[in-house]
Amino acid sequence: MEFKNITFVKEGKIGIVTLNRPKALNALNSETLRELDSAFDALHADKEILAVIITGEGKAFVAGADISEMKDLNTIEGREFGILGNKVFRKLENMGKPIIAAINGFALGGGCELSMACDIRIASAKAKFGQPESGLGITPGFGGTQRLPRLVGEGMAKELIFTGKIVDAKEALRIGLVNRVVEPEQLMDEVKALANTIAAQAPIAVKLCKTAINRGMQCDIDTGIAYEAEVFGQCFSTDDQKEGMTAFIEKRDKSFKNS
Ligand code: CAA
Questions:
Q1: What's the whole-model pTM score?
Q2: What residues does 65 pair with on adjacent strands?
Q3: Could you report the per-residue pLDDT of 28-57, keeping only the tens digit for each?
Q4: DSSP for residue 59
Q5: Catalyses which reaction (predicted)?
Q6: Best mutation site among 21, 25, 26 for ligand 1, i.e. most ligand atoms within 8 A of its Cβ?
Q7: Strand order through the sheet with 128-130
Q8: How far is the CA of 111 from the centre of ligand 1 (A)?
Q9: Which of 133, 154, 185, 243 is the catalytic position?
Q10: Chain-centroid distance, C-alpha 238
């Protein structure tokens, strides 16, 4: 698949999407968002891909939505741009595969928001995070007002969003915005190792775990527990449940078929 602003490669069971507009610090214009949309469709459709990594080329993960494209938008166009970004990020968030953000550098505005639509965030020690939109006269537009408080709590999210303050990877770890901070040169190796560990588990179980967690975070606990009971039951209709448990009993390596 050929793209202008991103690259998409497969390494075994892993799909790697790299934002590749380094001269603009990988800023998200609508063309890049549409390319991501197509790449996410392709990742979703590819049954061999069991985990996905999103990263950026150069010194930025993503330095935000493209300010030069947004500058002259009117109300309707601004809303449409926000709807496009949110549609693409929700597609990523709802994809039935684990998504890991390998945050190599600046993750600002739409970049921080892209990382938050991923399931797991691993940051390079060089990464920097923030929602600087209020300094540009706008609100976060690709989910920042919704996902940041869910991740780091309301007070911390409000402080970051109201001030536009940029924080380093250490602070992002302290407030729970990222799972781990690693040395820059180790970032991709660590993230690929994590992706491969996840890809070695039963894929349908991982997918159902993701759905149960995502749904459960948005509803009351009784509804969430009822949903967990549903997906737990569904697992027993899969070949991989039989294989996982039989391999355990027979003390042999398991071989999952994603079925
Ligand atoms: N949009 C468009 N272009 C951008 C950009 C963005 N978000 N971020 C960086 N660039 C461009 C710069 O204009 C510059 O282009 P030129 O070389 O043509 O001048 C190039 O990328 C390199 O940037 P800098 O020279 O500024 O690099 P730096 O190392 O000095 O600074 C930075 C890096 C601190 C990240 C700085 O570029 C910056 O502050 N960028 C903007 C960050 C920002 O405000 N992001 C939020 C955008 S709004 C948003 O995302 C809304 C939403 O929620 C959807």
A1: 0.98
A2: 28
A3: 999 999 999 999 999 999 999 999 999 999
A4: T
A5: a short-chain (3S)-3-hydroxyacyl-CoA = a short-chain (2E)-enoyl-CoA + H2O
A6: 25
A7: 60-62, 106-108, 128-130, 167-168
A8: 11
A9: 133
A10: 27
